[in-house]
TrEMBL record:
Keywords, ordered alphabetically: ATP-binding, Nucleotide-binding, Translocase, Transport
SUPFAM superfamilies for the chain: P-loop containing nucleoside triphosphate hydrolases
Protein name from the UniProt record: ATP-binding cassette domain-containing protein
Function description: Part of the ABC transporter complex HmuTUV involved in hemin import. Responsible for energy coupling to the transport system.
Alphabetized Pfam families for the sequence: ABC_tran (PF00005)
Keyword Transport recorded: yes
GO molecular function, one term: ATP binding
Native source species: Sandaracinobacter neustonicus
Keyword Transcription: no
Domain called ABC transporter: residue spans: 5-243
Length: 264
């Protein structure tokens, strides 16, 4: 069974400011929702709140009918995977050990055949097989980001069902090849039944990935549309950029080309 996430009249206030203002939405299994919007729009706040890690000031978030704030942290870790904007890995773990952390919420041993297979698959997906035994403290920014993504893929896939995957700016630091590889992996996960929501700054990439695009500004949802229906005039207004720039960005993302890593 896949996960339906529903949000009703969500409000978050912090430090006297309204960070999210009466948001309602519903995310279906198999969908990829991309959250776009300027710096400070509330994207990370929304993802943290949807993950159940930041209690809302008002409103409800339900994961398959259960209120997310009623679930314990271990139960939340089984039902949803959250990739945060990353900090450095401070301890001297090997890459494979960091990736194996995704198994813990599901009680699967990294030494079991199933655990080993999940780790190997995620390492291969993020082009990290050759890095498995390297220290995770000695990686470039993009390599480190790929390690965190691989850990999240393990956590998602180790569950009994493909559940909810929340990603906060997952392409940060990734080169073009690895951005495209990530897009391919996410599309495959959605096809396998995952419910995915990701914040992205890159609008052309967002349009290629999303089945649905949410445009957030100052805590308010201004658009919730398939990417091809996103209005360039609204994008220009929200980002305070020239309309021709907005049209160019959206045009780049509306290429009908499939994702290709290298010429076949
Ligand atoms: N602990 C806090 N207390 C009060 N305000 C906060 C707190 N954390 C963040 N904010 C404010 O909340 C707003 C939304 O922040 P958030 O991190 O959700 O934005 P974002 O859309 O993810 O931005 P970015 O694109 O820069 O990552 C910002 O104006 C920020 O300054």
């Amino acid at each position: 069974m896949a996960m339906i996430l529903s949000v009703e009249n969500l409000c978050v206030t912090r430090g006297g400011g309204t960070l999210l203002d009466r948001l309602s939405l519903s995310l279906e299994p198999g969908s990829i929702t991309v959250l776009a919007g300027p710096n400070g729009a509330g994207k990370s706040t929304l993802l943290e709140t949807l993950a159940g890690d930041l209690p809302p000031t008002a409103g409800q978030i339900r994961l398959d009918g259960q209120r997310i704030t009623d679930l314990s942290l271990p139960r939340r870790a089984e039902l949803r995977t959250m990739l945060r904007q990353q900090s450095l890995i401070a301890f001297d773990f090997a890459v494979t050990e960091v990736v194996a952390m995704g198994l813990h919420p599901h009680g699967i041993s990294a030494d079991s055949p199933h655990g080993r297979a999940l780790i190997a698959e995620a390492l291969a997906d993020m082009d990290l097989s050759a890095f498995a035994d390297r220290s995770a403290t000695r990686l470039s920014g993009g390599e480190g980001q790929r390690v965190h993504i691989a850990r999240s893929l393990v956590q998602l896939r180790a569950g009994e069902q493909r559940s909810l995957l929340l990603l906060d700016e997952p392409t940060t630091g990734l080169d073009y090849r690895h951005q495209l590889a990530l897009l391919q992996v996410l599309k495959a996960e959605a096809q396998a039944g995952a419910t995915i929501i990701a914040s992205l700054h890159d609008l052309p990439l967002a349009c290629r990935l999303a089945t649905r695009l949410l445009l957030l500004a100052r805590g308010t949802l201004l658009a919730d549309v398939p990417p091809e229906q996103l209005d360039p005039a609204l994008v220009a207004d929200v980002y305070a950029i020239d309309p021709a720039e907005a049209a160019l960005l959206l045009g780049l993302g509306r290429s009908p080309l499939p994702l290709r890593l290298a010429a076949e």
